[in-house]
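INPUT
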Amino acid sequence: MSEVLLETNMLTKNYGDVYALKDFTVKLDCNKIYGFLGRNGAGKTTFLNIVSSRIFATDGEVKIFGQDSFNSQEILSKICYMPEKNLFIGTMRVVEILKSAALFYNGFDMQYAQELCTKFGLQTKKKYKALSRGYESILRIVIGLASRASLTIFDEPVLGLDAAVRDMFYRELIEDYTNHPRSFIISTHLIEESANMFEEVVIIKEGSLVKQLPVDELKEMARYVSGKAASVDEAVAGLNLIHSETVGATKICAIFDRLDDEKLKKLTRADLDLSPIPVQKLFIYLTSNN
Amino acid sequence: MNRVSKCLYFQNKNMLKNTFLYVLYYTLAVLLLMLLPIIFKGLRIGGNAYGKSNFYLPAGIFTFAYIVSTYKETFNYLLLFGNTRKTIFISSIVTNTAMSLLLAVISLISTFVEAPIANWFGYDSIGTDLLDFIYQSNSWASKLLFIAAFLILLAAFSMLYGALSYKLGKVFTIVFWVAFGVAFVSLPIVAANSKLNFIIIAIDLFFCFEASNGILLASINFILLALIFSSLTYLLSRRQPQVD
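OUTPUT
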């Protein structure tokens, strides 16, 4: 059984009548890459800010490595949180920021950080305030990866990056994770391209947990069933239907269910077409209000 | 190195760099002002007099400006790298105290060196040190203690200002400066009004203008008030959510 990385119990954060998180309970294991998915305002950043003690929960508890993380220096020293927001000092040069990261993270690999800067084309002599949005993200990526912290959290790490650089990041993360296994939590909106990187996904909607599943299982559970409306209705009866639409005489249903042999047999009929649902589409169905 | 030492290293490095630059620019500005009448001889109006600079007053302004302007970015930056509010608070207090002591020593040195330098430029150093004017019979040690305590108080106040400004945002800044302006303008009126002269008496008691060891007693008052300000800052910052 793997060691528990993070455990929350009935975590709640509200601003007056507005609930950013509501009774959010989740349990994450060590040495995995978790994807935190949710629509804008779902509560992802609030959750990550509470985990890293940037803000405080209104109610509930958070335990990281089995300890209460609230303002604990021991726990916070093990977490490297690279938020979406700009919190670096604008007048500092990139190299100075890297040096202070090396000062605060015992495992920080400066040589690796320099290699990453070269690879991503980040000029270390530049001042932070002179960096473009993309290079700001790259600096966060460099620090997050080179910190080698027990838990690294990236909130929207690929903002402002082009497709080629995003791909480089995904590859680099997987390679570094393989060489130095540790825990990652990554919150992103670019679900389709980053899904392969995650081992598990946590889907949040309106401050509550919708699903927490390994990516493979998530993909297995999600299927489109299409065919004549009557046949489709008959086949999907009793299954967890998350979306349906009718185009002419053809009906397409999206199901999200654990398919045992019996259920699968019911669906694999000559008059029905069974196909996988892209992760992005599945996410939309699961988080849609309709 | 523990986390407090790491934060101290980071904060002290920035503080020393900025303090050094401030002292350097200030000294260069003073030297330039001394040189101007020599370069442009016609500007030498009113003889060769050169007054005392009382460096601790501009040092106080620098202390306030530096701490207030760096409070937010330093807090956010150190929080980003996994430091607790307590760690940040302790390192900030130590750094600001170190800056106050450093500036106090520089202020004291400046009182000794500015007269010979002024003389070397051909000026007659005149005027009285403000402290000698306010308090009688001061040794250099009591002056150093007073200046250090004064700057420590200013640093503690600046941290409290920074913490309140971080928590309340622009509302606090506007209210504070309006209140400060009103107080500044109304103080002479208050002084003239016998019904409100308790404020003047309180100021007099705090600064111990009348006491024989006034400079030492005032220093103790400064330290005590600095402790109160620092405690308030800690209470404000220990559960302070991060503001972007």
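end of record. Chain B touches chain A through 22 residues (CB under 8 Å).
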